[in-house]
Amino acid sequence: MSPSDTWTSRRTTRTISLLAQGVTVGGGAMPRDPETQLEVRSWRLDSLWVLRLMGELDACTVPSVRVKLDKVLLTFEALTLVVDLTRVTFMASAGVGVLVEIQEKVSERSGRLMVVLPAGGRPHRLFELTGMMGYLDVRETLEGAVRALREGALSPAPGGVAGEMH
After folding, report:
1. Cys-Cys link to 91, which of 2, 123, 129, 162 (CB 3.0-4.6 A)?
2. CATH number of the domain that 134 lies in?
3. 57 in any annotated domain
4. What is the residue-level pLDDT of the chain in tens, covering all 166 positions?
5. CA-derived radius of gyration, the chain
6. pTM for this structure?
7. Does one domain contain both 144 and 99?
8. Both 37 and 25 in a single domain?
9. Residue-number span of the structural domain to which 49 is assigned
10. Residue 156 lies in a domain
11. In whole angstroms, what is the distance from residue 132 CA to residue 102 CA?
């Protein structure tokens, strides 16, 4: 194999890798369907709502989270909401931003927000780096979040630290 063949091979491999990530070699982003990158499910559990996010939470997929949240917010005046990030495989800063938006919208309606975030994952590390662990009520499991909400074991206001994760 000649040096030029090696360079071409590396470039081809890098191009394929970038395309798989949704990036074109020319520098622009390839259009991708947010529905294939993130699935948002919601359901009511007694007096609270659960939004389960599955997949990648980034600038491309945040709008689908907003749409689902807006549907829930239109239905109920006061709201207790759990956002389950257990199955989020990737989270960018846009994901953190939408969680701050959710906290603000829920607070405006005198509601409560709880985030489910298992220890050890990439989203958990992002929460630690950005200080979100001290801003949102966080639990490691959905069961723990539901139990805390039912027992009223919440921080007094956004910005406090509560629960299983410290």
Report:
1. 123
2. 3.30.750.24
3. yes
4. 444 443 334 443 443 434 444 444 444 454 455 556 899 998 998 888 999 999 999 999 999 999 988 888 887 766 899 999 999 999 999 999 999 999 999 998 888 999 999 998 889 999 999 999 989 999 999 999 999 998 886 554 344 334 333 3
5. 19
6. 0.71
7. yes
8. no
9. 32-151
10. no
11. 13
Closest CA to 82 of 47, 109, 119, 110: 47
Domain assignment present for 116 = yes
H helix intervals, the chain: 3-20, 34-37, 62-75, 93-108, 122-130, 142-151
Alpha carbon 147 to chain centroid, angstroms:
21
Structural tokens at position 31: 């259009």
Q: Are residues 43 and 117 in the same domain?
A: yes
Query: Which structure tokens are listed for 164?
Result: 């299983």
| Amino acid, res. 22 | G
For 159, the token pair is 């910005």
Question: Which residue, 60, 13, 16, 10, is CA-closest to 35?
Answer: 60
Summary count for the chain: helices (H), strands (E): 6, 5
